[in-house]
Design brief:
Distance between the termini: 114 Å
Helix content: 10-25%
Structural class: alpha+beta
Oligomer: single chain
Number of helices: 3
Strand content: 35-45%
Largest sheet: 16 strands, antiparallel, barrel
CATH topology of the largest domain: Porin
Strand order of the largest sheet: 2-4-5-6-7-8-9-13-14-15-16-19-20-23-24-25
Number of domains: 2
CATH superfamily of the largest domain: Porin
Order of helices and strands: HHHEEEEEEEEEEEEEEEEEEEEEEEEE
């Protein structure tokens, strides 16, 4: 209640208390009251105020009663509203629970739909990928069928190897030689051929071969053969049919394990030859020359051998046993020894070539290291030279009694280094030093000479090559080589028989070189045989001309006109070489021979 209502109620209570006696007295004498009623007395001020208060009180009571009724009505409505609110809350809770249930169901459905959409997307992508894979596989299969990189026979893959060459050589001094140059036969000025040039076309360096590989899992089997037409048959000539014969360059088999061990047997490049990777076959780092004899200073051989190698990380160690032969040269030698014989026809050796009787194979060991940049090699070789000599040959009455076999040991050390200065330039260094190692040089200088008593004497030899190879782009290579090979003078004073007082051996200084610079007339009459007139240029008289050193400088380019993994490569080459051959000094001086050579070549390599 308000303060005004409270004050009004308090006043009513006070007045009610004060008016109780008056009411009691008015009801005591009814007669008097009736009299009073007949005669309305005049209200006093107090009475009037009381009456007004009563009326006001009654009015207020009426208002209070109305308010009470309104409050009761409101309370009833409020109770009803409360009940409705509770019912609504209950309904809302139920609705909320239902909503949550529906929401959860909707979320689950949404997640399911999302998962389904993702699955559908994955399936679409998978279908696209499968379609692409099928397309790529079909294309790959079509390419392999139409353009296979290898052929398949059972479990063996076969990779053909071939190129087809047209090459030619011009030499300012004729050597009657095809595309390969016999460097140690460069004519001195006294030879008639030193005054004529030669120009020869050749397709004989064209090559045919194949690589055969079978991978068993624990080890890999490989076989390789390579051939060209630089062989000469008994009917070969350049008159009409040019019937030069196919020859064996390489043919070998190999077994290699996954642990890096390999054994290779057959005809192959010698282990002395520099390789590009490890000591692996088919990675030989030959000069880029067109000349099939490569370059002076390059050490190599291709011969029958068995090779063992073990690769561990960047290091490889290898050993080879290789077929031996002896290159011999001597002046004033006694006829008290022999080292071999001409080939026997029934033994399938060339009847017009000499073959030494070997006591042991050449033994070669080499270690290579392949860091991130470059390739490095170091190795050694041991050689065994045997002859049979006859001490009794120099007796007053020569006799073969007391013939003895004698073996001398030679060998040497070699090293190779190949390193890129930039990605466009490679430098290479090679050196071989030893005694009796001449046959491993490309000039074929002698391995041994002989003592007066008939025992052999290995000749000290040096071989070296400096290489520069430039690769400005994928189409073009520029190359330059400078090489030299040296054979040391090796002589002995004889005290035996008719040779007593003479110097015996290689390049005696007492031998005559007097005619090395004087041209002579043709040497024979025509008889229809090779070397007879008019194919009989004069040869120098009194000219030993034992080679001291052969030097060659080479420069050239290789240009790849077209390269395709599908169709192969077409390339042109141009090479110029300057050759210098210098002899040991003898009576009459030290002759010198030079030659200018220009090679050109066109080759098509199969892919």
């Amino acid at each position: 209640m308000t303060k005004q209502l409270q004050a009004t109620l308090a006043a009513i209570l006070v007045i009610s208390t004060m008016s109780v006696p008056a009411q009691t007295s008015s009801t005591a004498t009814p007669a008097k009251a009736r009299k009073t009623a007949k005669k309305a007395p005049v209200e006093s001020t107090t009475e009037r105020q009381i009456r007004e208060l009563r009326e006001e009180m009654q009015s207020q009571q009426a208002e209070i009663d109305a308010l009470k009724r309104q409050n009761a009505d409101k309370d009833a409505k409020l109770a009803t509203a409360s009940q409705d609110a509770q019912a609504a809350n209950a309904a809302a809770a139920a609705a909320t629970a239902q909503t949550q249930s529906v929401s959860s169901s909707v979320q689950e459905n949404k997640e399911a739909v999302t998962t389904l959409n993702s699955t559908l997307t994955d399936l679409k992508n998978l279908n696209v990928g499968i379609a692409q894979t099928i397309s790529d596989t079909k294309k790959d299969l079509s390419e392999k069928i139409d353009s296979p990189t290898t052929l398949h026979y059972k479990g063996v893959t076969i990779t053909p190897v071939a190129y087809f060459a047209f090459e030619n050589v011009y030499r300012s001094r004729s050597m009657n030689s095809d595309i390969n140059t016999p460097f140690n036969a460069t004519p001195y000025p006294g030879a008639a051929q030193a005054h004529t040039s030669e120009l020869n076309f050749s397709g004989r360096q064209s090559r045919l071969g194949g690589l055969f590989e079978g991978n068993t899992g624990p080890f890999k089997l490989s076989g390789y053969f390579e051939s060209d037409f630089l062989g000469t048959g008994i009917t070969s000539n350049s008159n009409q049919s040019n019937s030069y014969v196919l020859r064996q360059r390489q043919i070998w088999g190999q077994a290699a394990t996954t642990s890096g061990f390999a054994v290779t047997g057959g005809q192959m490049w010698s282990l002395v030859t520099e390789t590009k990777v490890s000591t692996n076959n088919r990675t030989e780092n030959t000069p880029m020359n067109i000349d099939a004899q490569y370059n002076v200073g390059f050490s190599w051989a291709r011969q029958a051998a068995i090779r063992f190698q073990q690769k561990t990380g960047k290091l490889t160690v290898a050993m080879a046993l290789e077929n031996a032969q002896i290159l011999y040269s001597a002046t004033n030698a006694n006829a008290n020894f022999f080292i071999g014989n001409a080939g026997a026809g029934g033994g399938q050796y060339n009847l017009s070539a000499n073959f030494s009787n070997n006591v042991a194979p050449d033994v070669i060991v080499k270690a290579t290291y392949d860091p991130k940049l470059g390739h490095y090699e170091i190795g050694g070789l041991a050689r065994f030279f045997r002859d049979r000599y006859y001490p009794g040959q120099t007796n007053a009455t020569p006799t073969a009694a007391g013939g003895v076999n004698d073996t001398k040991i030679g060998g040497g050390f070699f090293a190779n280094a190949r390193f890129p200065v930039t990605k466009f330039v490679d430098f290479g260094l090679h050196a071989l030093v030893g005694t009796g190692v001449g046959r491993y040089g490309t000039s074929s200088l002698p391995d041994v000479t002989v003592h007066p008593d008939g025992t052999l004497a290995p000749i000290k030899s040096y071989q070296g090559l400096y290489s520069m190879e430039f690769h400005p782009n994928k189409k073009l290579d520029l190359f330059g080589y400078a090489g030299a090979e040296y054979a040391q003078r090796t002589v002995y004073l004889s005290t035996l028989g008719t040779s007593a007082g003479k110097l015996v051996g290689y390049a005696p200084p007492t031998s005559s070189n007097a005619g090395c610079n004087t041209e002579t007339l043709p040497t024979s009459a025509g008889n229809g045989l090779a070397g007879a007139a008019p194919y009989d240029p004069g040869t120098p008289g009194s000219c030993l001309g034992a080679t001291r050193v052969v030097i060659e400088g080479t420069a050239g380019i290789t240009y790849r006109v077209y390269t395709s993994p599908k169709f192969g490569r077409l390339q042109y080459q141009l090479q110029y070489s300057y050759l210098d051959r210098a002899a040991w000094t003898g009576v009459g001086g030290a002759p010198k021979a030079t030659n200018n050579m220009v090679f050109t070549g066109m080759r098509y390599y199969i892919p």
